[in-house]
Each structure stands twice: as structure tokens, then as C-alpha cells.
Amino acid sequence: MISVPQGQEEESKSAHIRHIVCLKFKPETISESILEVEKKFPALKQSVPGIISIEWGLNNSPEELNKGFTHCFIVTFANELARSTYLPHPAHQAFVEILKPLLDDVFVIDYNL
């Protein structure tokens, strides 16, 4: 475990957080369902307080190291409290219920800005 130097603990609670979500859809997932995800994920910004921005894109790397992940969504939160609000928020949970049956895999990583 990495320890946070004294005095920086409070700073990390107030720093912006970047939340990166990469999606790999099941092969049988139809394009209309993927389009729904592409619309509904960014729309969470209007429903969940503390989201500064949501951007996303499709993988186009020529390196072919994406391991089948095709979509990347980047959510920027105002701070740790905003992320803590987002995770159990009813709008996020409703979106997860739509997304889960479509996914073969998901990769999530967060970091402080």
C-alpha cells in the first residue's frame, strides 16, 4: 500500500478525480444496444451532481493491444465526495442495469488530478 504524505490526505479528498471505464461488449450485443450505452453514459452528467465532464471514444489504436475493449469513457469528478455520490446514485445504478447484460468485460481505473 502506498502511503500518502502527511498534509496531502486532505488535498486528495478535494482534488479532481478521473474515472476511466473501458468496455468490452459481448459479441452478440446488437448495435442499437451499444448506441443506447453511448447516449446514456454521457447523460449521467445531467443527473449526478459533481460530475465535471464525461467524454468518450471508440478504440482506434493501430497497436491492437486493446484486448477486445472497444469503448473508453472518462468521467471527471469534482472530488472524492462526488465520486462517492456517483457510485450508488440511482441514475448510475439504473445505467449499470442496462449495461451489465451487454458486457463481456469492463476495466475501471481512477486517479487524482
Structure write-up:
The protein has helices spanning 8-14, 31-47, 80-86, 90-99; strands at 17-25, 51-58, 71-77, 103-112. It has 113 residues and is an alpha+beta fold. The chain has one domain (14-112): Alpha-Beta Plaits. The protein has a four-stranded antiparallel β-sheet with strand order 2-3-1-4. The radius of gyration is 16 Å and the shape is globular. The two termini are 19 Å apart. Mean pLDDT is 92; it is low at 1-5.
List the helices and strands and how they pair.
Elements: H1 8-14, E1 17-25, H2 31-47, E2 51-58, E3 71-77, H3 80-86, H4 90-99, E4 103-112
Antiparallel strand pairs: 1-3, 1-4, 2-3
Looking at this protein, list some descriptive labels:
Alpha-Beta Plaits; alpha+beta; four-stranded antiparallel sheet; 4 helices; 113 residues; globular
Structure, briefly:
This protein is α+β, with helices and mostly antiparallel strands and 113 residues long. It has helices at 8-14, 31-47, 80-86, 90-99; strands spanning 17-25, 51-58, 71-77, 103-112. Helix 2 (31-47) packs antiparallel against helix 4 (90-99).
Our Rg estimate from Cα atoms comes to: 16 Å
Please, how many domains?
1
Estimated structural class: alpha+beta
From the structure provided, what is the oligomeric state, counting identical versus distinct chains? single chain
Any idea of the CATH topology?
A: Alpha-Beta Plaits
Report the CATH C-level class. Alpha Beta
Shape: globular
Strand order of the largest sheet: 2-3-1-4
Largest sheet: 4 strands, antiparallel
Strand content: 25-35%
- Termini separation: 19 Å
